[in-house]
Design goal:
single chain; mainly alpha; 84% helix
Length: 140
């Protein structure tokens, strides 16, 4: 019950990304805050702070990687909206977020090959995969 605001925010972000190919900063912030608050209320402040710390590490690693990619290739790789979404997911569940990100990138690459497209938005792949991981993980 405490996670409902997070799920509403993150699925809204996926819908916006599918339509507009962007993840608004305000919505990304709301997702991260809702994830932090939900974890805090469900598992305590120490776990919430641990998750937030790991999310910061993942966020900084991806921002650095994307910055280097853009400098070397002179083209964008993943978008900053994808990085912001992963921050929120890792605040909710760090391992689930990283696994969902990897699976979503593979799924996105496959979809691009099938659709013969150079790029597609990532969040419509990432969010449902993360949701599946969370549902399966909670039933084990």
């Amino acid at each position: 019950m405490v996670y409902i605001p997070f799920w509403i925010c993150i699925f809204a972000g996926a819908a916006i990304d599918a339509r507009e190919r962007r993840f608004p900063n305000e919505l990304a912030g709301a997702c991260a805050v809702a994830a932090f608050a939900g974890v805090w209320l469900d598992k305590g402040v120490n776990t919430a702070l641990d998750h937030a710390g790991l999310a910061v590490i993942v966020y900084l690693a991806l921002v650095l990687t994307e910055s280097l990619w853009r400098r070397v290739r002179h083209a964008s790789g993943i978008g900053m909206g994808d990085v912001k979404a992963l921050f929120a997911l890792c605040t909710f569940d760090p391992l689930g977020g990283v696994v969902a990100f990897a699976v979503a990138l593979l799924t996105l690459a496959t979809a691009c090959l099938i659709a013969k497209s150079r790029s597609l938005p990532l969040l419509p792949f990432l969010v449902p995969i993360f949701a599946i991981i969370e549902v399966v993980g909670s039933t084990l």
